[in-house]
Design goal:
With 222 residues, this protein is α/β, with parallel strands linked by helices. The protein is built from six helices and six strands. InterPro entries: G_AIG1 (IPR006703), GIMA/IAN/Toc (IPR045058), P-loop_NTPase (IPR027417).
Length: 222
């Protein structure tokens, strides 16, 4: 296993509405009781831990109510932005936490879209849906659940480029569910890096020193 200094640093910001399970997911990811459960999170809290060859930083954030961002308090909006500042420079991901089994209708969609977009116009490029309450999945798979979901929930998954994961916070001993999530996040970050490296340089009128034709950039649909 790589040492903390060699390991990849994964920076995670948990976002979501009231009672979504953000703090619980944070504790499951860090395998540690860092964030308070059951009491509404009021301010951002950050913690880092080395796990499975990764250095993992998690920022827990206060929830929004299921209203338009316009109707959320300035304090809440500032605190969400502070969460992003806390995580600092470098690649990070947003985990949009939503409890499995809870209805996701138009007003949830509006609240998610407007609050997430406070994090920047490109927020969707860095966002994965994290379904909490994995114990509520029952016998089916998450893919079947999404397949049979309403258009609003499908919209959320599609907006996140089909990136999603399920955590059962009642099964904190299940490290595999966390390792799998970290692998997905790593893949998301390295994909993003690959895109920025293969992005064709702006045309300057000069021929490239190697004289080789540019590779076409990969499609940005995942
Ligand atoms: N059954 C089950 N309950 C969960 C799971 N995750 C969270 N909960 C419960 O959901 C409730 C809310 O969890 P929190 O982690 O406090 O949610 P939060 O989004 O941080 O909530 P606020 O910060 O208060 O808005 C708690 O009672 C948790 O025990 C899960 O995977 N399964
Ligand atoms: Mg909380």
């Amino acid at each position: 296993m790589a040492s903390a200094s060699e390991s990849e640093h994964l920076k995670i910001i948990l976002l979501g509405g009231r009672w979504a399970g953000k703090s619980s997911c944070g504790n499951t990811i860090l395998h540690k009781d860092v964030f308070s459960i059951g009491a509404q999170t009021e301010v951002c809290v950050m913690e880092t831990k080395s796990f499975a060859g990764f250095q993992v930083t998690v920022v827990d954030t206060p929830s929004w109510n299921w209203v338009s961002a316009e109707d959320s308090s300035e304090e809440l909006k500032q605190e969400l932005k502070r969460g992003l500042e806390m995580i600092g420079e470098g690649a990070h991901v947003f985990l949009m936490v939503y409890p499995l089994g809870a209805p996701f209708i138009e007003r949830h969609k509006i609240a998610v879209q407007e609050h997430l977009e406070l994090m920047g116009a490109d927020v969707w490029e860095h966002t994965m849906v994290l379904f909490s309450r994995g114990d509520w999945l029952g016998k089916g798979t998450i893919e079947q659940r999404i397949e049979g979901a309403n258009k609003e929930l499908k919209w959320l998954v599609e907006r996140c480029k089909n990136r999603y994961h399920v955590l059962n916070n009642k099964s904190r001993g299940d490290e595999f569910q966390v390792i799998e999530l970290l692998q997905k996040i790593k893949q998301m970050i390295s994909q993003k890096r690959k895109w920025s490296k293969t992005e064709p340089p702006e045309f300057t009128g000069e021929t490239s020193s190697a004289g080789a034709p540019e590779e076409p950039s990969p499609k940005r649909n995942k």
